[in-house]
Amino acid sequence: MVNLIDKHGDQGRLGNSFDAVLSAVLDVYSPDDISHIGKLTNQKQTTEPIIGSNAIKHIWYDFHAECKGGRWDKLSNLLVQVTPTLNGQGYFSAVPISSESSTDWEIKSVQDGVVRTNCMDCLDRTNVVQSMFGRYILYRQLQERKGLQSKYSDIKRTSRRTLPLEYIVGYRKQPLTLPWLEGEIAHRCLWADNADAISRLYAGTPALKGDFTRTGKRTKRGAMNDGVNSLQRYYLNNFIDADRQEGMDLLVGSTQFNFIASEGDDDSARALLLRELSNDRRGFDKNHIRIKRKSIEE
Fold first, then answer.
1. pLDDT of res. 8
2. Mean pLDDT for the chain?
3. pTM of the predicted protein model
4. N or C: which end of the chain has fewer CB within 10 A?
5. What's the CA gap between 65 and 248, in Å, rounded?
6. From CA 200, how far away is CA 54, in angstroms rounded?
7. How far apart are CA 131 and CA 212, in angstroms?
8. Predicted confidence (pLDDT) per residue in 31-56, tens digit
9. What DSSP state is assigned to residue 1?
10. Which residues pair with 117 in a beta bridge?
């Protein structure tokens, strides 16, 4: 688990609470004392621990503090911390085995873990860091090239290296970029376009810090775009999102269609819906709902 929120203020208190809950869960289900697990889960007691002692690792990396002053190169320190976990988890790889009748697949490796990354909205900071992890795994896949190794497995090799030496040396010097330009540009554009699409669905604007994800640099124009997008998010969050949330609640059945409006009675139906939403419902701005309800009822 990679936690990117601040270590002070409201985010710091939230991070401390998260760490305390995670520690409590690991203490309960750790292999040291599991005699009480059956009582907690109403299941037959077992000698097998549910969570291994080293199954979960929590890294709290204060993104804003570490990268303060445009020091985005410090993200490499986080990559160094997570690299052993990424190497241990591996990645899924399957290569085709062609025959005259059909094409089968041979599984060469499997992935047995994930890196859960979060910030406050799990959107902007998370996207930057996940792009770094994704780049590292892509480099490993291209370096190892298991399919190529399988194809030429009968040929004796004097070296395990499958990439030119200058690529390997270049990536070790600059682990935040791929060592060949075309691949780096393709990776950045793919990741940034995907981030913008998810951000538009979730927040209504392109992702923040997109200039770094797309170009590898923090620019003044990117900072200005972030300011504009932040203002737009503030407006959408306070004046538009409540209407969208009402529609989502109706769509997924969280709010029941228990009032059928007669012809010309749409305002009454909307007032009743807002009244239901304002009754101890989480995720709604109560003041915003009361204002809208009052204006409708008037």
1. 93
2. 79
3. 0.73
4. C
5. 36
6. 37
7. 10
8. 655 454 445 455 555 555 567 767 88
9. -
10. 2
